[in-house]
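Notes taken during the Thursday session

The instructor put the following on the board and asked us to keep it in front of us for the whole hour. The protein is 2,3-dimethylmalate lyase. We were told not to look anything up and to reason only from what is written here. First, the residues (427 in total):
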Amino acid sequence: MYHGQLLRISLAKDPIEKSNTTFTFGKRVLRNTIACSFERESVNEAPAKALRRILDTPGVHQGPACFDALSAKLVERAGFQYCFTSGFSISAARLGLPDTGYISYGEMVDQGELITQAVSIPVIGDGDNGYGNAMNVKRTVKGYVRAGFAGIILEDQVSPKACGHTQGRKVHSQGQGLLADAGADVLFVDALASKEEMNAFCEVSPLVPKMANMLEGGGKTPILDPLELANIGYKLVAYPLSLIGVSIQAMQDSLMAIRGGRIPPPGSMPSFEEIKEILGFKSYYEEEKRYATSTYQLPSRRVSSSIYNTQQKDQIDTEQTDRSPQEPIVEVITPDVYNNYGADGSRGPFSGIWSRTLRIKITGRDGFEKLDVRIPAGFLEGITNIVPALGGVNLKELVDGAAGEVGGKLILDFNDTIGDRIQVFLE
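Then, after some discussion, the predicted C-alpha cells were revealed:
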C-alpha cells in the first residue's frame, strides 16, 4: 500500500554508488520522504551524534518545525531536544509564497545555515525532493552537511513538488529505490488519513523508528497526543505549522490593533526587556566588556605644541597593559603659554578662567567609566577634539555663568547618541 522510508546516508561513501540506482525513491499512495543523518570525518559530527542519541532514547520525541533563526532559538529555549525546518513555513516566511516548488535549494541552504548557527540542538533539514535528479540529490546532501544540519528529509515526489497534505502530488515508482540497502534510520509516510493506517504503517520494519507528522489546523492525518503516538509505535513527531501559524495570527491581530489607533494589549507580546533577553542583548553586553577600550583618549598631536605641553598622567607600562575596562586611560593637559588667553591679568570675559579646571567625565551605558579628565577651563576651542559629542554646546556661556562660584559645579549632564553619559564640572 505504501513504501515510504526515511533514509540514512553515510557520507563516508558516495550515496549514489551505495544505492546503485538513480537517487529517487519508492512509490506509494501518499507522499514518501527520506531522512538522512549526516556523519563525515571532515565536518563536525556533533549534530548527527546528538540526533542518534535521541533516536536511541526511549519514548517519543517531539520536534517543532522552525522557519528562521529566531523561531529555532525559541524551540531550544522551550526545552526541545531537536527541531525540524519546515519547507512550507520557510517558503511562507521568506518568500510569502505557497509550498509548491517555488523555493530553491540555495535559499533553503542559506536559511538552514542561519538556523543551525543560532542553536545548539540538532536540526533536521527539509530537503524537498533533492531539487533535481540523482546528481542534484548528492549536491543537496553535501550542502546540508556544510550548513550544519544533523539530518535531511528527502521526498520521492516528481517536480514540481507539493506539500503532502495538498493536491497535485506525484511520486516516483517503487522500482527506482533500493532504500533498505541504503540504510534507513527512520521511516515516514506523510498524510496518513486514519489511526488504522498509522498502526499498519508502524508494523512495517518494526525495528526501524517511525516518524509522524502532526499537521496542525486541518491536515489529512488525525492529531494524536504523544502518548498515543508512542503506543502506536512512533519515535519522532513533527509539528510543522504551529510556529508559523500562531505568528501569522499574532501579526494579523497586532496590525488590526495598530490600524485602530491602539497597540497590542499587554500579555499579547513580550515586554521590550524580555525581547532583548531572548535575543541575547545581556550576554552581548557582558562579552563586549571583555574587549572594551577607551574611546576617548586625548590625542596630543591635535593640540599645538607651541601652546600646550601635553602630559599623560598614566604612562603606558606593564601595569597599564593589564588595565581593566573599569580603569580608563586618563590624560591631563596643562597650559604652557597663557598670555594670549587672558592669563596676563586682563579683564576679558575669561579673566581668571585659567585658574579653574574643567573635569569631563564619561560613563558608558554599561555603567563603566570611559573617561575622567581635567583640563584648564580656558581650553574650550579644542575640547571637541577630545569629546566630539560636545560639539555645538555653548561651553563658554556655561563656564562664564559659573566662573564666579566657589567650589565645584556641574555645568553639563546629558546622554550622547550612543547612550554614554557625559558630565562636565567646573572646579
